[in-house]
Amino acid sequence: MYLLVVLKRGEIFMFVDIAKIYVKAGDGGDGIVAFRREKYVPAGGPAGGDGGKGGDVIFVADRELNTLLDFKYKRHYKAQNGERGGPNNMHGKDGEDLIIKVPVGTVIKDAETGEIIADLSREGDRAIVAHGGRGGRGNAHFATATRQTPRFAEVGEKGDELWVILELKVLADVGLIGYPNVGKSTFLSVATNARPEIANYPFTTKYPNLGIVYISEGESFVLADIPGLIEGASEGAGLGHQFLRHVERTKVLIHIVDVSGSEGREPVEDFIKINEELKKYSPDLAQKPQIVAANKMDLPDAQAYFELFKEEIEKMGYEVYPISAATGMGVREVLKRAYELLKQQKTAENVEEDAKPRTFVYYKKKDVKPLTIRKENGVYIVEGTVVEKVARNIVLNDHDSFRYFQNFLNKLGVFDKLREMGIQDGDIVRILDVEFEYYE
């Protein structure tokens, strides 16, 4: 599921980017059964090493990212498993943690419960969402004075797994400015998956339309088509203040001009008037990086107008790109340049010294089955998280392994409960796929 939503909060329109993904921490490596076999050690003891721990799944807030678009194309993430133990008490290698980078401002939720796991609102914030399984112990751990050659070891624990929802609320990174009906909505529809209203009359766009521009993997940004600006907007004419409040929050501007003159206006004058309105409203706003997109190059005689327009605008210190939003010509080049400027702006931003990165740790509540015993078709079935975990490591045809299992069941009170239920010698007891006959 991937949703794009615009929220109106007062006069601020925010972009909500949502993705649902599956994460799986690495499983722990199995411990092994091994014995010393050196030439000059006649009575070599158990020497099976422990398995390595599985890798964790960790989310990290990265200021270089702007959207959650990449999670639309990849929805399953898995950390590395721990390796099996080795002979001579060699510990298996731990699995590598999986680092998943997300934009600053990403909220992570447990998809099943809706619980907020972490709010990564600062650069470098980390959230350990899924924990790797513990490695199983090798047979060296089970040696005692009476059990000197244990032929069993533990299997590694499974890593955590869960579905999480990533939710990002941001303002648009790049804003489209220009007179009404110059092709901003068409540009947005070509550049992103947004579907704004497009028609041949002024003020088609009453509210900001937003979409995601995908440059390449890990490189994307939010683009806004903001209501058209006219002369006098700084005094509130047209959609004046509403427009300017939105554009003030963007970091880069793409100024679209109808270079064909198809609406009966002079392109250079249009450009100058729009920038004058920006200066009147806010001097800082007029200083934002601005790319000039000379639109409607597909129309007759546009090329002749373009050469004159480009010469005048470049004298003012602006970059000019010829485009046709209707055909898509030149749009990609403008978007790539906007992304470059956006990265430069973000690098130049000062991060508060006291906003130190934080680490969030989440432990998903696991289902723990209590110890239960029931009789079914003459078989006593024992269930429970603790007893099943031990049963997975039992070697039935090994005397020491089975004896260890019996002692464990006795300490857990399983045999006492079986007697209370009236078990008789020769009756069958089953735990998972382990079956044995009961005898006092």
From TrEMBL:
Role this protein plays: An essential GTPase which binds GTP, GDP and possibly (p)ppGpp with moderate affinity, with high nucleotide exchange rates and a fairly low GTP hydrolysis rate. Plays a role in control of the cell cycle, stress response, ribosome biogenesis and in those bacteria that undergo differentiation, in morphogenesis control.
Gene name in the database record: obg
Stored NCBIfam families: Obg_CgtA, Obg_CgtA_exten, PRK12296.1, PRK12297.1, PRK12299.1
Limits of the OCT domain: 360-440
Keyword tags: Cytoplasm, GTP-binding, Hydrolase, Magnesium, Metal-binding, Nucleotide-binding
Cofactor annotation: Mg(2+)
Annotated HAMAP family: GTPase_Obg (MF_01454)
Biological process terms in GO annotation: ribosome biogenesis
Residues reported in the UniProt entry to bind Mg(2+): S185, T205
SUPFAM superfamilies the UniProt entry points to: Obg GTP-binding protein C-terminal domain, Obg GTP-binding protein N-terminal domain, P-loop containing nucleoside triphosphate hydrolases
Superkingdom to which the source organism belongs: Bacteria
Major localization class: cytoplasm
Keyword Nuclease (UniProt): no
Membership in a protein family: Belongs to the TRAFAC class OBG-HflX-like GTPase superfamily. OBG GTPase family.
Enzyme class, broadest EC rank: hydrolase
PROSITE patterns per record: G_OBG (PS51710), GTP1_OBG (PS00905), OBG (PS51883), OCT (PS51881)
Description of how the protein assembles with itself and partners: Monomer.
Protein name: GTPase Obg
EC number in record: 3.6.5.-
